[in-house]
Amino acid sequence: MIAKYFMAPPPPSSRPSPHRLRSSAALVALLTASALCTAATARADAPPANPFAAASTLSFQAPRFDLIHDSDYQPAFEQGMAEQRAEVDRIASDPAAPDFENTIAALERSGRMLDRVNNVFSCVYGADTNPALDKVEEIEAPKLSAHQDAIFLNQKLFARVKALYDQRDALKLDPEQRQVLELYYQQFTHAGVQLSAADRTTLSALNTRISSLETSFQQKLMEGTKAAALIVDDKTVLAGIGAEGMIGASKAASSRGLDGKWAITLQNTTQQPVLSSLENRTTREALFQKSWTRTEKGDANDTRDIISQIAQLRAQKAALLGYPDYASYELYDQMAKTPQAAQAFMNRLVPATRAEQERETSDLQHEITADGKSFKLKPWDWNLYTDKLRQKRFDLNQNEVRPYFELNTVLRDGVFYAANQLYGVTFKERKDLPVWNPDVMVFEVFDKDGSPLGLAYFDYFKRDNKNGGAWMSNLVGQSKLLGTKPVIYNIANLPKPEKGQPALISFEDVVTMFHEFGHGLHGLFANQTYPIVSGTAVARDFVEFPSQFNEHWALDPKVLAHYARNIDTGAPIPANLIDKIRRAARFNQGYALGEIIAASKLDMDWHSLSASAPKQNVDTFEAASLKKSGLDVTDVPPRYRSSYFLHIWANGYAAGYYAYLWTEMLDDDVYAWFRDHGGLTRENGQRFRDMILSQGHTQDYAAMFRAFYGKDPDIGPMLQHRGLAPGEN
Ligand SMILES: [Zn+2]
Question: Residue 174 Cα, ligand 1 centroid: separation in angstroms?
Answer without folding.
Answer: 31
